[in-house]
Amino acid sequence: MVLSRSLSLIALFLVAASPSACALDEPVCTNRQETLTNSSNFRLVAISCETSAGAGSIAISVSEDGEPIQELHATYKSQAYFLEMDNTFDIDLDGSPDLSVNTGKGRDANGMHYWLYDASSNQYTDLGEAPHLTRAEDGGLFALVSSGGEMSSIRYNYLVSAGKLTTVNAIGFVPVNDGLFYIVEFATTDSGDLKPGSERMEVGERTAMDCMDGTAPCPSPARSSE
C-alpha cells in the first residue's frame, strides 16, 4: 500500500490510555489519543505519557488493516502539554505526506519531532527534532525563533542531510528604528556551530518581514559587500 498525499486528519478522540502505552515504568498517561487514517485503513495513534513534572514520552503506533507495522517514539517537555500530530506536511516534496508531533521544547515551546515517510517501504524514518518548520516560497525549509539580546528573532534554514534534519545557516534580525532592521548572517564555525557574522545589512521593515515569513528571498550582507 502506498500512502497517498490525500491522507488527512479524520478524528481526534479523548480516550483513556493504559499506562503501558508508552512502554515506561509506571508513567502517568494522559487521556488523549489522536488517530489519523485514510480510505486504505492506514492508521496512526499517538499517546502521550507524563513521566515527570512537565515532561514525558510520546508513542505512535502505525498499523494497516489492524496489523501493527511500526512504533515511533519521541519525548516532550511542557507544563501544559497537549498532543498534536500532523501528517499534512511534505518535508521532502516527494508527494507523500510526512509525520510530525509537537514536543513543547525550545525557546518558543514550538518544538516538533519529525519522521519522513517512504512509500516504497511503507515505513517512517526518524528525522529528529526541530522548531516548527515552514515551507518558504522558494521551496526551502525554515523556522523562525525568537531571540534575546539585540536580535528580535532568528531564521534557521534546514535541509534533510544523512537522514536527519540539519541546520544549514541562519539569519538574525536586529530592530533599529523607524521600521528599519539590520540583517545578520550566521557563519558556521569549525565545530559546526552557528555564530553571528560581523557584516550587517540595513533593510526596510517589509524586506525583513518577507524574509521572516519566507515570502521572498532573504538579502545577504555578505553578497551585498562583494
Outline of the structure:
By secondary structure, the chain is mainly beta. Helix content is 6%, strand content 52%.
Tell me about this structure.
The protein is 6% helix and 52% strand. It is mainly β and 226 residues long. The chain folds into 2 domains: 1-132, no CATH class; 133-226, no CATH class. A hairpin with a 2-residue loop joins strand 4 and strand 5. The longest helix is centred in the last third of the chain and has 9 residues, at 205-213.
Rounded mean pLDDT score: 84
Determine the number of helices (DSSP H or I, runs of at least 4 residues): 2
DSSP E strands, number:
16
What series of H and E elements makes up the topology?
EEEEEEEEEEEEEEEEHH
Radius of gyration, Cα only, in angstroms? 20 Å
How are the elements arranged and paired?
Layout: E1 8-13, E2 28-29, E3 33-37, E4 42-52, E5 55-64, E6 67-77, E7 85-86, E8 99-102, E9 111-118, E10 123-131, E11 134-135, E12 141-146, E13 153-161, E14 164-175, E15 180-188, E16 194-204, H1 205-213, H2 221-224
Antiparallel strand pairs: 1-3, 2-4, 3-4, 4-5, 5-6, 7-8, 8-9, 9-10, 11-12, 12-13, 13-14, 14-15, 15-16
Annotation keywords:
single chain; 226 residues; mainly beta; 2 domains; 6-stranded antiparallel β-sheet; 2 helices; elongated; disordered N terminus
